[in-house]
Design goal:
Blueprint: E1 2-6, H1 10-22, E2 26-30, H2 33-42, E3 47-51, H3 59-68, E4 75-79, H4 84-93, E5 97-100, H5 105-119, E6 126-129, E7 132-135, E8 140-143, E9 146-148, H6 152-163, E10 169-170, H7 171-179, H8 189-202, E11 210-213, E12 217-220
Parallel strand pairs: 1-2, 1-3, 3-4, 4-5
Antiparallel strand pairs: 6-7, 7-8, 8-9, 10-12, 11-12
Helix pairs in contact: 2-3, 6-7, 6-8
Length: about 230
């Protein structure tokens, strides 16, 4: 489990990061909201732990910007503020849970694990976006009932994008989840594969499903605004 912990108090940051690391989590830290936002927007994490009172860009604004950019990583807010209004504000902006200071480290760990469990979705064998259907078991992709031939890497990339339908995934997330270690981050392989997917999945259809979010990443979604019953994947 990979966690980003954003905290401006150096002593607290070191203590909690060490505790979470000893509990088996992979922890990255950031000392302020600006760096935290940059990392949370460009890297793949299972959860974000944010102190609300951060210098410059506070935790509330960080959450707002992440959600506006389509980043759906679960967020746990840490704050010394006990007022109901503050808790409500964080949740309305897109936080998933709230923990008031002071807190027990064991409770923090338990809340992070529970948060990730709640947000994890079982990997479906069959996925569908509009009339695009992907079957993991059969290693088959169809659009409008017509079979589309993909390379193994194209298939894995499309499956990852469809699994996160409606959420923007960054190049870093794709590298980590699809390509894995050893990938040259300066390579244009991701752009090439996304372009190939567009040619095969979108080019012959009026409704485009693969979109680029400039400066952030890619997203698969139906932006037509039309309520669709959809063709069953079979």
């Amino acid at each position: 489990m990979k966690v980003l912990y954003v905290e401006d108090d150096a002593e607290a940051r070191e203590l909690i990061a060490r505790f979470l690391g000893e509990a088996g989590l992979s922890v990255e830290t950031a000392p302020d909201g600006k760096l935290g936002l940059e990392r949370a927007s460009s890297r793949a994490y299972d959860a974000l732990v944010l102190d609300v009172k951060l210098p410059g860009l506070d935790g509330f604004e960080m959450i707002r910007r992440l959600r506006a950019a389509g980043v759906s990583t679960p967020v746990l807010c840490l704050t010394a503020l006990g007022e109901v209004a503050s808790r409500v504000r964080g949740l309305e902006l897109g936080a998933d849970d709230y923990l008031a200071k002071p807190f027990a480290l064991a409770e923090l760990l338990a809340r992070i694990r529970a948060l990730v469990r709640r947000r994890e979705r079982p990997l479906a064998n069959r996925m569908q976006v509009a009339d695009l259907c992907l079957d993991i078991s059969a290693h088959q992709v169809k659009r409008g009932g017509k079979t589309i031939s993909l390379t193994p890497r194209e298939f894995d990339l499309l499956a990852y994008l469809m699994r996160h339908e409606g959420s923007v995934v960054s190049r870093a997330m794709i590298i980590e989840r699809v390509w894995g270690e050893g990938f040259d981050s300066y390579s244009n392989a991701i752009d090439v594969h996304v372009n190939n997917l567009r040619n095969k999945v979108d080019r012959s259809f009026e409704l485009r499903l693969i979109h680029t979010v400039k400066g952030v990443g890619y997203v698969v979604e139906d932006r037509s605004g039309v309520q669709r019953q959809g063709r069953a994947c079979g």
